[in-house]
C-alpha cells in the first residue's frame, strides 16, 4: 500500500528553510492545483541559480510546482510540512484524471519555440512533384475514405508497413522526412514525447488505397526496461520462477537449466578483460586467488572517484582498450568479476552430474541463491539489450482510430518485417558497455524473440487485451493456436512522467554543482533509465525520499509477446537458436496475411456499425492539427 504522505524536510540552509516555510504558509491560502503551481512559478523566476543552496531551493520549488499541478496536497501540522499523493476527484474516473494530469507537460512541450517551428513547418503548404501538400495530406480525407468504404467494404483499406531505416529517409508522396512524419503524429498524443537512449525502430502503417498513402498508425520499439519483475518471472530470470519450474522439471530439463546457468557465468567472465587485474590466464576451476586479488584492488581504490569516459568517436572506431583500462571501467570490471568469481566458485563445488540436486542447492541455500542470482543476472544482461525490445509507442492516427487502426498497428508489431528490420539495423552494432568491459568491439546477435509493453492505465488496454493472431490466419510451419499479447502482471507504480523537463534540468545542474561533474547523462551505455536515475539523484541531493515521491501509484498492465516458440529458453541461454512462429523468408506476405485477418476480424465489423460510421463522418482534420492548439487558436 502506497504511503500517501511525505514529510518535507529538505537539506537547505536555515535561511532558505525559513523562506520555504513562509512560502508554503502563503500557498495554503491559494486554491490547489494550477493556481498554486503558477504562484510558485513566479517565485521560481526570482531565484539566484549560482550558489549551491540557491540551486537546491529553486529545484525544490520546481518540484513542488510539478506536484501541485498533478493535484498533490500540502499540509502543515504542528510546524511539520507534508505533501500528500493526489486523490482522484469525486465524480471523475482515475483514468480520466490521469489523462488530464498528463496534458500539462505535453502542452508545455508544444509551446517551446523549437516545437512550434517544427509544427508550423509541417503544416505549411508546399509544392512537391507538382502538387500542393502538407502534413494534412497524410491524414485520410473523411469523404474519400467513406466513399471507398461504401464501394469496397472490407477491401477499402490496404495497409502496409513502412519502417524508418534512417533519419534521412523521405516520403515519396510528400517529400517529408519519414521521421518527421512519425514525430508530428506522435506529438498529437496525450503522453509527452521523451526521446529514449539505446536501440530504436520507428514504424509507420500506411494505407495504399488512398492518395498520398495516409498514415493509419505509428509505432516504435525501444530498448527494454531492464527491471520488470512480472516479466522476468515469466521469462525465468528470477529465483522465484526457477523454484516454481523445479516442481515439474525432469532430469533432462534440469541438466539443460544447470548448463545454461553455468555457461552464462563462464561467458560473462571471459567477456571481461582481466589481464590488468589478474596477472595470469584465468583458470575457472580455481578462482579463490582471484577473489583475494580483486578485493585488495577495490579496497585500495575505494576512495577514488572515477568519472565515466566520454566516447567521442564513432563507436565502431573507438579505442576500446583505452576505455577499458581507464579507472572507471577498471573498477567496474573488478566489481563485476568479483561477483562472477564468487558465483563460479559455488558452481565449481556442485555435482553437475546430478542436475536436480544441484538446482536444489542453488535455491535452498543462501550462498546458492547468491550464485544463482549472479548467473541469472549475467544471462539477463547478455540478452535484454539485444534480443528483446519494448513497444514504446503504438496507436492509430485519426480518422483510422474509429476503424480500430490501433489494433492493426499492434498486430503488425509481430510481423517478420519488424524482426528483419531489427536484425538488419543492429546485426553489426557494437555494444557499448560490453565493448568497454572487454576492451575490444563486441557485437551481440540481433535476433528479436520477445516484445514487451504496458497499458497506459491500470484498468487495461482495449488495444492490447485479447489481441492475437490465430493459427489459421498465418502462414507458418507449426504455429500454436494463437500468438499475441499476454498479460503478465502489473508494474509497481513508479515513474517520472509528471516531473517536468525544467525540473529534471535543474536536478542536473544541482548534482553537477555538488559532484563537480555531470553524474548522469542521456548517453546510451551509461546505464538504464537516465531520467529516472537523474531524478533520484536530485531528490537525494535535496534530502527527499525518492521512493515515496516517485511512486505515483498508477500501475500499468505489463504485456509480453513471444515471437518464437522457444523464446524463453533462448533468452535464458538454454537454447542457441530461436524457433520463430512465423516464417521469416516471406515477411511482406505475412504482413499482408496479418492485415487480412484484421480486415476480417475487426474492420468488417466496424464499417457495418452505423454509429461508428457516423462518428467517422463527424471527424474534422482541422480540429486535429497541432497548430490549432497553439497560441490559443
Automatic annotation (TrEMBL):
It comes from the Bacteria. InterPro entries: DruA. Pfam families: DruA. This is Druantia anti-phage system protein DruA.
Amino acid at each position: 500500500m502506497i504511503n500517501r504522505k511525505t514529510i518535507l524536510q529538505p537539506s537547505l540552509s536555515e535561511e532558505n528553510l525559513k523562506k520555504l516555510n513562509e512560502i508554503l504558509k502563503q500557498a495554503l491560502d491559494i486554491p490547489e492545483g494550477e493556481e498554486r503551481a503558477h504562484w510558485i512559478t513566479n517565485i521560481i523566476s526570482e531565484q539566484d541559480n549560482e550558489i549551491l543552496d540557491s540551486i537546491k531551493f529553486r529545484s525544490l520549488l520546481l518540484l513542488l510546482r510539478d506536484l501541485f499541478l498533478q493535484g498533490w496536497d500540502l499540509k502543515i501540522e504542528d510546524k511539520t510540512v507534508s505533501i500528500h499523493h493526489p486523490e482522484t476527484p469525486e465524480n471523475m474516473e482515475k483514468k480520466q484524471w490521469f489523462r488530464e494530469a498528463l496534458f500539462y507537460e505535453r502542452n508545455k512541450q508544444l509551446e517551446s519555440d523549437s516545437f512550434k517551428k517544427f509544427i508550423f513547418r509541417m503544416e505549411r503548404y508546399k509544392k512537391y512533384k507538382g502538387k500542393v501538400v502538407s502534413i494534412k495530406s497524410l491524414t485520410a480525407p473523411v469523404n474519400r475514405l467513406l466513399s471507398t468504404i461504401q464501394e469496397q467494404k472490407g477491401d477499402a483499406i490496404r495497409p502496409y508497413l513502412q519502417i524508418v531505416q534512417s533519419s534521412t529517409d523521405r516520403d515519396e508522396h510528400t517529400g517529408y522526412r519519414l521521421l518527421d512524419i512519425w514525430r508530428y503524429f506522435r506529438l498529437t498524443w496525450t503522453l509527452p514525447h521523451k526521446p529514449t537512449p539505446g536501440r530504436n525502430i520507428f514504424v509507420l502503417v500506411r494505407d495504399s488505397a488512398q492518395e498520398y498513402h495516409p498514415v493509419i498508425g505509428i509505432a516504435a520499439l525501444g530498448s527494454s526496461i531492464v527491471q520488470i519483475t512480472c516479466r522476468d518471472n515469466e521469462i525465468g530470470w528470477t529465483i522465484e520462477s526457477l523454484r516454481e519450474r523445479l516442481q515439474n522439471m525432469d532430469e533432462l530439463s534440469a541438466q539443460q537449466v544447470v548448463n545454461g546457468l553455468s555457461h552464462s557465468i563462464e561467458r560473462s567472465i571471459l567477456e571481461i578483460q582481466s589481464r590488468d587485474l589478474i596477472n595470469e590466464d584465468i583458470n575457472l576451476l580455481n578462482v579463490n586467488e582471484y577473489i583475494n586479488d580483486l578485493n585488495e584492488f577495490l579496497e585500495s581504490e575505494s576512495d577514488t572517484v572515477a568519472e565515466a569516459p566520454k566516447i567521442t568517436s564513432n563507436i565502431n572506431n573507438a579505442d576500446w582498450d583505452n576505455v577499458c583500462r581507464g579507472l572507471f571501467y577498471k573498477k567496474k570490471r573488478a566489481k563485476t568479476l568479483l561477483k562472477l568469481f564468487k558465483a563460479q566458485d559455488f558452481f565449481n563445488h556442485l555435482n553437475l552430474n546430478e542436475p536436480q540436486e544441484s538446482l536444489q542447492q542453488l535455491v535452498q541455500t543462501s550462498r546458492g541463491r547468491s550464485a544463482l542470482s549472479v548467473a541469472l543476472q549475467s544471462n539477463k544482461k547478455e540478452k535484454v539489450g539485444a534480443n528483446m525490445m519494448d513497444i514504446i509507442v503504438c496507436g492509430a492516427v485519426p480518422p483510422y482510430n474509429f476503424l480500430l487502426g490501433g489494433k492493426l498497428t499492434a498486430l503488425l508489431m509481430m510481423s517478420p518485417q519488424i524482426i528483419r528490420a531489427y536484425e538488419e539495423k543492429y546485426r553489426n552494432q557494437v555494444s557499448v558497455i560490453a565493448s568497454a568491459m572487454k576492451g575490444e568491439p563486441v557485437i551481440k546477435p540481433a535476433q528479436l524473440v520477445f516484445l514487451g509493453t504496458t497499458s497506459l492505465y491500470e484498468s487495461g488496454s482495449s488495444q492490447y487485451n485479447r489481441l492475437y493472431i490465430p493459427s489459421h490466419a498465418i502462414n507458418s510451419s507449426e504455429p500454436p493456436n494463437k500468438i499475441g499479447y499476454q498479460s503478465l502482471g502489473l508494474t509497481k507504480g513508479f515513474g517520472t512522467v509528471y516531473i517536468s523537463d525544467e525540473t529534471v534540468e535543474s536536478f542536473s545542474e544541482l548534482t553537477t554543482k555538488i559532484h563537480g561533474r555531470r553524474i548522469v547523462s542521456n548517453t546510451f551505455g551509461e546505464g538504464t533509465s537516465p531520467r529516472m536515475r537523474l531524478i533520484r539523484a536530485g531528490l537525494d541531493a535535496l534530502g527527499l525520499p525518492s521512493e515515496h515521491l516517485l511512486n505515483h501509484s498508477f500501475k500499468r498492465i505489463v504485456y509480453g509477446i513471444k515471437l518464437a516458440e522457444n523464446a524463453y529458453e533462448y533468452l535464458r541461454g538454454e537454447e542457441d537458436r530461436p524457433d520463430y512462429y512465423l516464417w521469416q523468408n516471406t515477411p511482406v506476405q505475412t504482413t499482408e496475411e496479418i492485415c487480412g485477418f484484421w480486415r476480417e476480424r475487426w474492420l468488417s465489423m466496424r464499417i457495418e456499425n452505423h454509429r461508428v460510421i457516423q462518428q467517422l463522418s463527424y471527424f474534422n482534420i482541422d480540429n486535429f492539427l497541432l497548430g490549432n492548439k497553439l497560441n490559443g487558436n
